[in-house]
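Quick start: what a row looks like.
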Amino acid sequence: MIPARERSGLPVQEIQTCFGLIADTHYPDRLPSFPAVINEIFDGVDLILHAGDVGELRTLDALSETAPVIAVHGNDDTEEAQRTLPAQQLIPLKAQRILLFHSHNADRAEELAARKIDDWGPKLTVRAERVRAAGAVLGVSGHTHVPLDVTHDGIRLINPGAVSQGNDRLRQTLCSVAILTVSQADDVMVNYINLEEPQASFQPQVDLDAGFSAAHNQVSQSIWDDDLSRFWEPLVALVRLDEAAMRMVLRRSAYPVWRGEREQVTRADLRRAAQDEPTLPPAVRQLIEKLLE
């Protein structure tokens, strides 16, 4: 494994600080096991920054075996993580400040409205304004699951990408973290690492003009087959009847795919998951079986 402090190509004596960047682990809800390769990649960093959607706090314990961790909560975090971790964290660093945040909108209605906008421009503007308001020049965030390194309105915005899936119907096809290196001259270099190819580094190739959906589709794909996908809208109504139990049903059907045991989720798979989920009310189970018969 390439040592973290050698990823930038700078001589070690010219490095001021080296950060490990990570986001959207969603562990253990959407991640069968915490990838040991992450700690190997981060070996030698001074500090690990987690940009939210941590999952259970033991995720941070696992990371802290390699280096101290600073983390913020995301929109899809556990109650404990949202209660314990801040929404954003300022990291002063010599001649500049770094703002660590998840980048979601705390207002649920506004967040859902923002997701309907495919143009990158408004998304980046909101993030840049938040970083500038904190007196920072560089923002590290998560949320989109898309690795990104762009300068927008004079603010550098970095997203290390995601380690886990965006929801229970998706598979993250590119799982990544990043190493941020600050030189003694205050230059900032970021190297991205695909967890499946940890010996190499890559730079994100995002066509901002093509829109957000195009970028997201490069790193994530649906795990539902075409037949099952036709039933999503009526299933949404059933999710509202008991969101917690329905999440468990969706997750139960998704885990075999995430573990590599199955290629896709079918109608039969989802019906079986509903039958096997003990927290699902019988009335809702019957509605699912009738819908998917």
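That is the whole record. The mean pLDDT is 96. The longest helix spans residues 243-258.
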